[in-house]
Amino acid sequence: MVLLVSGWTARLRDLALDGSEIYALAVFFYVGMLMVLNKLLGLPLDYYGFRLEHRFQLSNQKRRSWARDQVKGWLVGLVIGSILIELVYWTIRGAPRFWWLIAWAIFIVLFVLFAQLAPVVLFPLFYKFKPLENEGLKERLTRLSERAGTRVKGVYEWKLSEKSHKANAALAGLGVTRRIILADTLLEKYTDDEIEAILAHELGHHVHRHIPKSILVEAGITFFGFWAANQILHYAIERLHLFEQLSDFANLPLLMLVSAVLSLLLMPVLNAYSRFNERQADRYSYTAIPSIAPFISGMNKLADQNLAERQPSRLVELIFHSHPPIAKRIQAAEAWARGQSLLASRQSPA
Ligand SMILES: [Zn+2]
């Protein structure tokens, strides 16, 4: 907003054009300058986050390793950001009327590609992974998968302990790269039954096809986003005379503003969708494991270890939480178990 209101975006564009007369290269310079600015402004907050995790013993990452991650993250952002933005202005120049539709289609393809590549290309830049060696756990997972009528291609141990005291697990990737990843911090401190309950939850995401569904949801949102961006860009050019033409990449901050406002407005909706998926995966895990007890004790351990807020205010939950609060997840599991035992006692009158 500052760049737009102050007119500095035009100066940065001129600077970029001084650097190169080749349009695509000038766009790259402009993106690079924006990203340097963005990192400099955001760095104090990033460092505060780093210190905060140390103050509460959530992190054991050394300052040097943190700095390395910052540089790596910035470079990854520069590569991905440049590719996306070059594509946007390339379509604007090639097809000014339907650029937003074409750019949207390309974005979806790239989105699927990123989802597929992330666990094999991106994650290993920041953490080490190796195939899970625990034979007992592998066997349990195979059994769980067979019961679900599906196959998960791999389970990987995620070396989180090098940087963090927190524990986590996730389902990641698409197609051949789809895998369950388990933090070594989890494997170390949780019983096999608890890990099985967590595995069952991740398998629940897989069974309910949450990754492809989320991509579809994203596709719908970005379609609307690109359409809105086009409308606003035209309005800024034709009515406000802020820019001369669509292909003037000084309008990039406006595009980013549209996307930021849209993300902010949609955050509660997307989080509600995510919580819905999480509840679905939880319910799947209840039915997949022999007893609900390890699910509950595992949840309690996770809450303690990660310093999770067990019962945030309803408002905080609605806006920010992608997962239901732990207290609610445990309540839901207990309610389900009560329902099951009631059902069992009715079915087999003693
Ligand atoms: Zn989940």
Describe the structure concisely.
This protein is mainly alpha-helical and 350 residues long. It is 73% helix and 5% strand.
N-to-C span:
71 Å
Q: How much beta, percentage-wise? A: under 5%
Overall, the morphology is elongated
Mean pLDDT: 92
The assembly state of the depicted protein chains is single chain
Q: What does the main sheet amount to?
A: 4 strands, mixed
Write up what this structure looks like.
This protein has 350 residues and is mainly alpha-helical. The chain is 73% helix and 5% strand. It is built from 13 helices and 4 strands. The protein has helices at residues 2-6, 8-19, 23-55, 63-94, 99-126, 135-148, 184-189, 192-207, 210-238, 252-288, 293-306, 314-320, 326-347, and strands at 129-131, 154-158, 169-172, 179-183. The longest helix is centred in the last third of the chain and has 37 residues, at 252-288. The radius of gyration is 24 Å and the shape is elongated. The protein starts with a helix and ends with a helix. 22% of the residues are buried. The model has no long low-confidence stretch (mean pLDDT 92). The site of zinc ion has 4 residues, from helix 8 and helix 10.
